[in-house]
Design brief:
By secondary structure, this protein is mostly helical. The protein starts with a helix and ends in a 26-residue tail after the last helix.
């Protein structure tokens, strides 16, 4: 893992070149050409819908289900509770609150642009958004429900039955747990944030100021791009938290061994998916522990823990300014008017 990161760091330094690494403001065109080797812009939702042939009916059903609290045993918690589309796709607290006011073990990742992650969750235990959608519904610390009760609930609501039949007309019994997860995946695939200042810059616009360009240059030349690259500026590979130096227990809780809980491989202890950095300025607190509230502090910690470099104040400020340019146009979602429960709907449980 260290060798992998070192190779990427060396590649980043080589691509940046002497012009970009020179003191003072780097040349915008030079930085842009280097950046285009590491990053791609976020597409529009319309483009993704067309490319992936996602049906409008499944998206509409998924929109209802994303905001549906009756998917939880308590009838209180919806997908949007922990992944609020109005607050950067996350809940902006240290760890999410689930069934019975339990606190979850990790900070809630953003749902925005999650389609482009190599896997879901901090430990990558779900391969895609459909698989991810099933997890929180059944987790005792989250929605604490069962597939059978979810199906019973949805079948008790005529409006949902009609929506499932419309979205999955070929299925003999369209109201089922698999289709629920598929519909949520369809809706979440539209929660994209295109046209950020950074994306405009990649396309050739003069959208970044001098400090933001310097921050992007440092992001690449210092080696941040080793883990955070691609369309989502991260979200692909797995890396030890503390490649060079492990943070203290306040930031890296010793009981959370990361991907080890998925693979049971010793080398995966304290290994986590590199967090996607799109819209990172909107999703404090940071890291899987949610223990860091300042983006500048998070940048400084990454410098020392992952790169073995003590970034100075100006470098931290510039990189942080660049990270703010990753905020794109937020999805405009109309909150659905959900159908009332019927006599057949299972009652909420504590």
């Amino acid at each position: 893992m260290k060798q992998h990161a070192s190779l990427l760091l060396a590649a980043g330094l080589a691509l940046a070149g002497p012009a970009a690494l020179a003191a003072g403001a780097p040349a915008a065109d030079t930085v842009r050409q280097t950046a285009k080797q590491f990053f791609q812009p976020i597409p529009t939702a319309e483009a993704v819908i067309q490319e992936r042939n996602i049906s409008a009916d499944s998206i509409e059903l998924g929109r209802w289900l994303f905001f549906e609290p009756r998917l939880s045993r308590s009838h209180i918690i919806s997908c949007n509770s922990c992944h609020s589309v109005g607050t950067g796709g996350a809940d902006n607290i240290q760890t999410s609150i689930g069934h019975g006011w339990q606190h979850g073990p990790r900070n809630s990742p953003t749902v925005l642009n999650a389609l482009f992650n190599g896997a879901q969750f901090w430990d990558g235990r779900a391969a895609d958004l459909k698989e991810q959608a099933k997890g929180p519904v059944q987790a005792s610390v989250e929605m604490n429900n069962t597939p059978s009760q979810v199906e019973e609930t949805l079948k008790s609501l005529p409006e949902y039955v009609a929506l499932f039949q419309k979205a999955y007309p070929k299925d003999k019994e369209p109201v089922n747990f698999e289709n629920m997860a598929h519909a949520i995946e369809a809706f979440e695939s539209t929660l994209l944030t295109p046209n950020s200042k950074f994306d405009q810059f990649l396309a050739g616009a003069d959208s970044l100021d001098e400090l933001e360009i310097k921050g992007l240059d440092l992001f690449m030349s210092k080696g941040c791009v080793s883990c955070h690259q691609g369309i989502n500026v991260g979200g692909q590979g797995y890396f030890p938290f503390g490649v060079v130096q492990k943070p203290g227990a306040d930031i890296l809780p010793p009981d959370d061994k990361g991907r080890f809980t998925v693979t049971n491989t010793a080398s995966d202890e304290y290994v986590f998916r590199a967090g996607p950095l799109r819209n990172i300025a909107l999703t404090a607190p940071y890291f899987h522990s949610g223990d860091v509230w300042s983006l500048e502090q998070a940048v400084a910690i990454m410098g020392s823990s992952q790169l073995g470099q003590e970034l100075n104040g100006d470098e931290v400020k510039a990189i942080t300014r660049f990270l703010h340019t990753l905020t794109g146009e937020q999805p405009q979602v109309v909150y659905p008017t959900l159908p009332p429960s019927t006599a057949a709907t299972p009652r909420p449980q504590k």
